[in-house]
Input
Amino acid sequence: VQLQASGGGLVQAGGSLRLSCAVSGRAFSSYVMGWFRRAPGKEREFVAAIRLSISSTAYADYVKGRFTISRDNAKNTLYLQMNSLKPEDTAVYYCAANPSSLTTIERFYGYWGQGTLVTVSS
Output
């Protein structure tokens, strides 16, 4: 399984961005997909995860109500719609896949994309 994240960029506070993660390999729909981020000088942290569909998701408290994770299983693509962005959302965002559980725990995700940088200016 290979993951390729894209869609990052520079945006003003209050703005929006949509990240995408193209996934190659077999059985995309069987993987739980997640987004994580690493801010400058900080550890990587969980952002959101989705099982088969938007009806089964998990969000970190600091993005709940502002970010929406979704997936298009026909296109093998994962998305993260980010609204009402704040300067503290500045980070490299990573998509990740795990074959089993809807979890916030990083070590359960065995496949990772290369990351895409999101910068939110104040």
Observations:
- The longest strand covers residues 17-24.
- DSSP finds no helices and eleven strands in the chain.
- The radius of gyration is 13 Å.
